[in-house]
Amino acid sequence: MMNNSQKARTVQSIVKSVRLFLYSDLGSKRVCILVEGSDDAKIYSQFFKNIQINVMVIKSSVKSKMKDVLQNISTETKQVIGICDADFSHLDKDYPAMANIFLTDYHDIEMTMLSFIDVFHNTWLRFSLQDDTEGTIRDVLQKISYMAYIRWYSKKNHCNLSFAGLDFTGIFKIQDEKIEQDDEKLINVLNQRSNKKTEPMTSEKVNIFIRENQTDDVFNLCNGHDVTALIALILEDKTKKNISREDYCSVLRESFQLNHFMQTKLYASICIWQQTNNFDILTITSEVANGED
User: Does some domain include residue 161?
Assistant: First the structure.
């Protein structure tokens, strides 16, 4: 497998890098997979063979840019696919029309990995914890849901609220192993840090939106970045050690194995694509057992 992640910032530069690779002697026999970030490249690279992974680093809607890239290149070759986080697509029933863009089963790849309770349980064991993992993930999702609804509201109403780099320590607090959150502070912080917002967020707007869009589908509602950040705070409290979100996500990736990926709808969809287009890019269990690459 070739896992040579290339960073690109514009549609044109990504298209150019893909063309350069696919028209090379080595690239002519491989499939190029576009993913949204370097963490995604780390996750997906272990599940594919005969591929090149290109990381899309674009400060705007990645799915729309990925569509632009694929539309530019798909007229020349079938050897390019894109894998995107679903975000709210499953809740909004808003799916890409292109056959070579694939979405995660849940909100993003982190939520997809966490949907396997044994994966979450294994991450707990890595930190020498034996707690009730099902109860923990349930509590985390319940607490993060309020923030998730704000994210959903912002997307639906084009509010441009800024969540990037949000510091959780002032919004969430772990007290006696219970998660406490300050919803009003969250709203105030988002309003203060969102210089390009189209409207101020209020608790009234959030509560009305929640009533009108209530869902029990928390794995599609909640953002994996938020969930893993809160899990890291819980781990810090339990272990009394400094544990960052990146630390936890590294363990999460290691706990998510090929047998888990093979159970996803994403895997099934790519199976159909490779059969239809006569490619062979998905790693299978027997190859891992035999040490093939």
Answer: yes
Q: Is residue 240 part of a domain?
A: yes
Using CA atoms, how far apart are residues 71 and 271, in angstroms rounded to an integer?
21
Alpha-carbon gap, residue 195 to 116, rounded angstroms: 38
Residues 120, 259: contact at Cβ < 8 Å? no
pTM of the model: 0.90
pLDDT band at 23 (very low <50, low <70, confident <90, very high): confident
Residues in CB range of 135: below 8 A, 6 or more apart? none
**Angle between helix 62-74 and helix 11-22 axes, rounded to 10 deg:** 40
Interval 242-281: pLDDT, tens: 999 999 999 999 999 999 999 999 999 999 999 999 989 9
97 and 225 in a single domain? The answer is: no
The pairs formed by 67-75 with CB atoms below 8 angstroms and a separation of 24 or more are 67/96, 67/98, 67/101, 68/11, 69/11, 69/14, 69/15, 69/18, 69/34, 70/34, 70/98, 70/100, 70/101, 71/98, 72/11, 72/15, 73/15, 73/18, 73/19, 74/98, 74/100
Domains: count for the chain: 2
Whether residue 81 is found in the same domain as residue 24: yes
State whether 119 and 245 are in the same domain.
yes
β-strands 51-56, 31-35: how paired?
A: parallel
158 and 30 in one domain?
no
**DSSP bridge pairs for 181:** 172
- Residue 148 and residue 25 share a domain: no
pLDDT value at 89 more than 80: yes
Distance, in Å, from the CA atom of 216 to the CA atom of 105, rounded to the nearest integer, reads 16
